[in-house]
Amino acid sequence: MAYSKNAHRFSLAYVKQVEGINCTGGVCRYEPAFSGLRLGITSSF
């Protein structure tokens, strides 16, 4: 589920993520196993 307001985007999702390296937008990072709600906020300016 996502909601946009002006230059902001809010997202909420239930995820079940496995442990490992996650690369997004050219940035890679280690993320542990996770199961639950994830809230994301993206702003453009």
Description:
The structure is a single chain. The chain is an all-beta fold. It has one domain. The chain contains no helices and 5 strands. Strands 1-2-5 form a 3-stranded antiparallel sheet, with no helix packed on it. A two-stranded antiparallel sheet has the order 3-4. The radius of gyration is 13 Å and the shape is flat. The model has no long low-confidence stretch (mean pLDDT about 95).
Walk me through the topology:
Layout: E1 2-5, E2 8-17, E3 20-24, E4 27-31, E5 34-43
Antiparallel strand pairs: 1-2, 2-5, 3-4
Q: Spans of 5+ residues with little confidence (pLDDT < 50)?
A: none
Output the radius of gyration.
13 Å
Q: Into which percent range does the helicity of residues fall?
A: under 10%
Indicate the structural class: mainly beta
- In whole angstroms, the N-to-C terminal distance is 23 Å
- The strand count comes to 5
Strand order of the largest sheet: 1-2-5
Basic shape: flat
Structure in a nutshell:
The protein has one domain. Helices cover 0% and strands 76% of the residues. It contains no helices and 5 strands.
What features would you highlight for this structure?
mainly beta; 45 residues
